[in-house]
Design brief:
The complex is a heterodimer. Chain A is mostly beta strands. Helices cover 0% and strands 50% of the residues of chain A. The radius of gyration of chain A is 13 Å and the shape is globular. Chain A starts with a strand and ends with a strand. Chain B is mostly beta strands. In chain B, 0% of the residues lie in helices and 59% in strands. Chain B has no helices and 11 strands. Chain B has strands at 5-7, 10-14, 19-24, 29-37, 43-50, 55-58, 61-66, 71-76, 85-93, 99-101, 105-110. Classes of the chains: A mainly beta, B mainly beta. Chains A and B meet through β4, β5, β9 and β10 of A and β4, β5, β9 and β10 of B.
């Protein structure tokens, strides 16, 4: 059963705490992406990775960090430096770069109070 | 700033009617993609149209691309209640490695 999974579905944290969102894919895709979606808005790119051990900042990388130690995994850490972390976070993957369609996970809704 | 801007922001139609939504973008692109998002879920890819294509069909979906006007349209024919969702266009700029998403059109199909 191929796909892309994100966990947890809902996450609650206190302000000042770092939190890590999980993203795993078994599609054998090289490229992976993290997006943030705010209510009624489109997606904004946080980070992306085209290959293992390499990643690039997207449009809103400040306050976030990622790693890509394995092809299947691309975890996102929301640090305490992110001023407004409450949002819906979506992970995606594609065969290679955005020449190709992206497959999305179900998302993690993060609430920071 | 958003590369793609969808129009209208929201659309409400009756089941069986056609739904048309438009996307405008600013820079030259390599391809344009349409995605659907049901409330609180991830996005699902619908169709990809390359810059050298003018029209593409997939089932009840028809996408057009006019690179001279920097615009695309998505037509859903014979809509169903299950088509109720938000629809996003996303563009890949010529030399880039990422997609830029628009703000979306919320479609509601009523019985």
């Amino acid at each position: 059963d191929g796909g892309i999974t994100q966990s947890p579905k809902y996450l609650f944290r206190k302000e000042g705490q770092n939190v890590t969102l999980s993203c795993e894919q078994n599609l054998n895709h090289d490229a992976m992406y993290w997006y943030r979606q705010d209510p009624g808005q489109g997606l904004r790119l946080i980070y992306y990775s085209q290959i293992v051990n390499d990643f690039q900042k997207g449009d809103i990388a400040e306050g976030y960090s990622v790693s890509r130690e394995k092809k299947e995994s691309f975890p996102l850490t929301v640090t305490s430096a992110q001023k407004n972390p409450t949002a819906f976070y979506l992970c995606a993957s594609s065969i290679r770069t955005s020449e190709y369609e992206q497959y999305f996970g179900p998302g993690t809704r993060l609430t920071v109070t | 700033s958003q590369q793609g801007e969808e129009d209208p922001q929201a659309l409400s139609i009756q089941e069986g009617e056609n739904a048309t939504m438009n996307c405008s973008y600013k820079t030259s692109i390599n391809n344009l993609q349409w995605y659907r998002q049901n409330s609180g879920r991830g996005l699902v890819h619908l169709i990809l149209i390359r810059s050298n294509e003018r029209e593409k069909h997939s089932g009840r979906l028809r996408v057009t691309l006019d690179t001279s006007k920097k615009s695309s349209s998505l037509l859903i024919t014979a809509s169903r209640a299950a088509d109720t969702a938000s629809y996003f266009c996303a563009t890949k700029e010529g030399g880039g490695n990422k997609l830029t998403f628009g703000t979306g059109t919320q479609l509601k199909v009523e019985l």
